[in-house]
Design goal:
This protein is mainly α. 31% of the residues are buried. It folds into 2 domains: 91 residues, no CATH class; 159 residues, no CATH class. α1 runs parallel beside α4 and α4 runs antiparallel to α7. Zinc ion binds next to loops.
């Protein structure tokens, strides 16, 4: 079963890379066939098997010999491994399925936000729908509606931070994608842990922001990957964060 989950992960990982690199350029992903980015030749099914095709073709396009970005292999392997780990730790439980949602979003947001400075709407919408269905099945309607309220509350917190940032820095401090993403974080983690995720993400982003400002004089930092990273960290280590929280605030 774990091998099956790993293989599903590699297939989806390969799809996520397509989503994260083609959608920001306005390319169709559902109805257009996969093609080589260099010679634009349409790829056959045997060029599209995760990992195997990359290794079989020695990392080059069969038609023009152009190198295929190593990101393809990395993305397939990492998604497969994370899926397998989620199965290993959680079996087929709510945490497993919701874990897959978080892993998938994290991978797509890492690529699209670092490469194109954008958090795509469609993966967020799919994430919200899948989370809604999962919560409905595992926790019932009342709990699901309460968690949606948590999402709205965290969305408002992020909106407030954005407004304050605009007043202080006199320019857009957060992207619209970051604010929409905050809704999903609150929906998944509930309000308290969601708030901790926002705080943790600023600590994760800080070293990168400082380095990027001083080393390459760039003050535009993608924030999405750090939000996604802290969502993943807190979700997968939730019990530890809950202990920490009750220790700090005696709640
Ligand atoms: Zn080619």
């Amino acid at each position: 079963m774990i091998i099956f989950v790993f293989l599903m992960g590699t297939i989806l990982g390969s799809f996520y890379l397509v989503v994260a690199t083609r959608l920001p350029k306005g390319e169709d992903i559902l109805f257009s066939r996969s093609h080589c980015d260099h010679c634009h030749k349409e790829l056959k099914w045997y060029n599209l098997i995760p990992i195997v095709s990359f290794l079989g073709q020695k990392g080059k396009c069969t038609y023009c010999g152009e190198k295929i970005a190593l990101l393809n292999l990395t993305c397939e392997l990492i998604t497969g491994l994370c899926f397998a780990l989620a199965y290993y730790f959680f079996d087929f439980s709510y945490n497993f399925w919701e874990g897959l949602v978080i892993i998938s979003l994290t991978i797509i947001i890492f690529i699209s936000d670092f490469k194109y400075m954008i958090i795509l709407d469609s993966p967020l919408v799919v994430g919200v729908i899948v989370t809604f269905v999962l919560k409905l099945i595992y926790f019932g309607l009342n709990q699901t509606l309460y968690d949606i309220l948590c999402g709205i509350a965290l969305f408002c917190v992020m909106l407030l931070i954005e407004q304050i940032g605009q007043i202080i820095f006199k320019k857009e401090a957060l992207g619209g994608g970051d604010i929409k993403f905050a809704f999903l974080i609150g929906f998944i983690l509930k309000f308290r842990l969601g708030l901790i995720a926002l705080i943790l993400s600023t600590f994760l982003a800080l070293p990168y922001s400082v380095a990027s400002l001083y080393l390459i004089k760039n003050n535009e930092v993608p924030y999405g990957p750090f939000l996604a990273g802290s969502l993943a960290i807190i979700f997968f280590m939730m019990d530890k964060f809950q202990t920490l929280f009750s220790f700090l605030f005696h709640i």
